[in-house]
């Protein structure tokens, strides 16, 4: 009996989608921005150090569409409740089961419009519950600290309180006050 010459061959595996660990953008605009990013991230990590279900990160790429590595954002600081507090190289919303609950952006001349526009809309879409924007030099945002809280599907502005020449906002989710003090 003669073979037909047909051989079963396994199909090649689908090409793996690469989700880069960097977007090529600088971590911070200035030394002050870098210092504040680290201060906020580490302060919040310390605040939640005893809770293994609170993840705090800074300048880490958050991918929000499976299969689309271009669909990413790198918040300056973000907090996610209900996921393990472990080290990550990137954050994939579909694998973690949810996106950030709180986002803090440190704004500058080059990021102000994006922070108030595209990112605000994206964070609404991702289900962020509190969004804060801080201008460390008080040059591009007035007042230099603004916040938004989710009301239904959309963000509503938080009431900013005056504080001895500075400003403060209360984060109910973080259980802290964020303050912008005069220089």
> Order of SSEs, N→C?
HEEEEEHEHHEEEEEE
User: What percentage of the residues does DSSP assign to strands (E)?
Assistant: 25-35%
- The low-confidence runs, each spanning 5 or more residues with pLDDT under 50, are none
Please indicate the count of domains: 1
Oligomerization status of the protein chains: single chain
**CATH third-tier fold name:** tt1808, chain A
Distance between the termini: 92 Å
The total of beta strands comes to 12
Q: Given the structure, what is the number of helices? A: 4
What spatial form do the alpha-carbon principal axes imply?
Answer: elongated
Concise structural overview:
It is built from 4 helices and 12 strands, in the order αβββββαβααββββββ.
């Amino acid at each position: 009996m003669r073979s037909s010459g047909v051989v079963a061959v396994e199909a090649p595996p689908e090409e793996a989608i690469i989700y880069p660990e960097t977007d090529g953008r600088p971590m911070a605009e200035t030394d002050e921005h870098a210092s504040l990013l680290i201060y906020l991230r580490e302060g919040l990590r310390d605040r939640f150090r005893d809770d293994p279900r609170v993840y705090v990160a800074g300048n880490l790429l958050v991918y929000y569409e499976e299969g689309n590595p271009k669909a990413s954002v790198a918040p300056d600081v973000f907090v996610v409740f209900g996921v393990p507090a472990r080290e990550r190289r990137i954050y994939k919303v579909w694998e973690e089961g949810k996106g950030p609950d709180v986002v803090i952006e440190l704004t500058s001349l080059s990021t102000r419009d994006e922070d108030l526009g595209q990112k605000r809309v994206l964070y609404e879409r991702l289900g962020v519950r509190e969004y804060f924007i801080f201008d460390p030099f008080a040059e591009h945002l007035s007042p230099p600290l603004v916040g938004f809280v989710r009301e239904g599907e959309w963000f509503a502005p938080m009431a900013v309180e005056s504080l001895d020449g500075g400003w403060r906002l209360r984060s109910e989710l973080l259980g802290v006050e964020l303050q912008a003090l005069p220089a």
